[in-house]
Structures are given as structure tokens and as C-alpha cells.
């Protein structure tokens, strides 16, 4: 079970943004680093200079240096100068906040916004696809978010993404550094997050608010697909679950077990909403919220004893027989 290959060579740097809000944050970071860097070099420079210059102490009989205690001009200067610096930083931060927190109800003119509700769970992500350029969607998926890439040169092909962030249990935080800043998912309220990019690819992120035992393994995967590829993905996700008679044994085993209390498979009696929707499980690349690659062996290990793979996770082992495990894996692997 390799975790390394899921992360190797993946870029999580805030200094390599591919979307407007992440660019604004990088610009702000450079500005703050520059200002604080100059102050640091100045203060440390004077400190180090004095440490070496005066390390032997004054010669005998030397006069005291001039005393400036209570000097009004100096007091005013070293109060006003930091005040002014802080004020300028506050203005720049406010401007960045303004750029990053756009109103989700006023997308760019002629754009086709995608709207998705993100629900944080201990310890996975639920994605409810609400609408695509005004067309109602209404399917649910988990852990791997697919969005379309924009074409900035054609006004009709801009595809901003608006996320509504909610939580089913405790506070979580959605953070995909190359796309946007952090935004918390707070029980009982809705936050919003926006990004738009023309760079296709996979962008990784991570829950950024401690949320319990498996917080560190609440991984984010955002696939920015070329428009045609995204349309294809959307069409597949809107289809009901595959119903292959060749795996009816596994389907029956799945439906007769407690799996159905937590998981949903569209078109079957499995209607649980506590765990990830499995209608198109096999169209994903990973399992257990981006923790392990989606392979039959990994899925089998996972179902056999989830606690061994992700200790503390809310799915228990059900003591299935080896045959039942094989059948259920056979069934789930047909859910493309
Ligand atoms: Cu969810 Cu940390």
C-alpha cells in the first residue's frame, strides 16, 4: 500500500499559483516578506554591528555616550514609523481580501459558473454538484473534485468554480494552495470559496484545521479537466449506477449488510448518507479520502479492516468472510 506515489512530485507550493485568488495571496506574501525582511535585516544588522563594535566595553575614563531618554522627536519617530508600516500592510491585506472574497452571486459576465457544495466529514469530503452554468445537476460524489478549465480568451468559455463550504460534524478547512487560500467549513454555517484556472491538471490539498484522529489523512484532490473531458465526466456521474448481473452475488451481499446504512448507490436500496456515495466509486483514482490508490487489493484490505488502514475512522470491520469480501469487491469494482 503505497502512500508515497500519491504525493511524489506533486506541487503544493503557494508560490506557484494557477488561479487568481492564489496569485493575489502570493503577491501579498511577497510584499509582506519584503517589508518584514527589510526590517529584520535592519534591526539584526544594527544589533550584530553593536555586538562586535562594543564587545570590549569602554576604555577607562571614557565619557558616557549622550543620553537621549525623553527626547520627543525620537519618541514620536519610532512610534509613527511602525504605525505607518502597519497601516500600509493593513491596506494591502484589505485589498487582497477584497480580491479573494468575491460575491458568488455575481460571476464574470458571459461565464459558465460551476457550483458545488463541499461538506466536510470526519475524515472525508462530500461534493454535491449543484449546477453547471445554470443547469441543475444534483449528483453527489466524494473525495475527488472535478472542475472544468477556463478559456480566458473566449468570454463564453470562462468556467469559474464557486464552492459552498459546510460541515457535518466539526470544523474542517479546505486548502488547495495552488488554487485558493484556506477557508474553514464550520458546522451550522456556509462559507464560500472561489477559483478559476486555465491550467488543467491535478491539484492536491489537505484539510487545514485539526478535526480529530485522521485529520492528517483528510486529503484533497482537485482535477481541473479540459472542457470536453469534464463534460464526459459529468455525463458519466449523472448516470445511475451500473447494474451488472455478473456480480449479483456481491451486490446482494453489499445490500444485505450494514454497508447500506452509511453508503449510497444510486438506484439501489443503499441510501445511507453518513459515508461516501459509492455510485461511481470506480471512476475515482483513490480510496479513503486520497490516502490509498484505488486497486482491488487496497479496497479489499480497506473493507476487511478499515481501522488497520486508517485508525479511528468511523467505518468498523464487519467480520466478512473471505468469499463475501471478494464478492463485494467484485461488485464495487463495476461501479464506474
Ligand atoms: Cu478535517 Cu482536519
Structure description:
There is one protein chain. The protein is of the alpha+beta class. 35% of the residues lie in helices and 19% in strands. It contains nine helices and twelve strands. The chain has a five-stranded mixed sheet. It has a three-stranded mixed sheet with strand order 4-10-9. It has a two-stranded antiparallel sheet with strand order 6-7. Strand 1 (114-121) and strand 2 (124-132) form a beta hairpin. Helix 7 (296-304) crosses helix 9. It starts with a helix and ends with a helix. Dinuclear copper ion is lined by residues 120, 123, 172, 207, 209-211, 215, 218.
Q: What is the general shape?
A: elongated
Secondary structure tally, helices = 9
| Helical proportion, percent range | 25-40%
Question: Describe the biggest sheet?
Answer: 5 strands, mixed
The overall pLDDT average reads: 92
Classify the beta-strand content into a percent band. Answer: 15-25%
In the sheet with the most strands, the strands line up as 3-2-1-5-8
- Bound ligand species: dinuclear copper ion
> Uncertain regions: pLDDT < 50 for 5+ in a row?
none
The total beta strand count reads: 12
Rg, alpha carbons: 27 Å
> What structural class is derived from the secondary structure elements?
alpha+beta
Taken in chain order, the helices and strands follow as: HHHEEEEEEEEEEHHHEEHHH
Distance separating the two termini: 22 Å
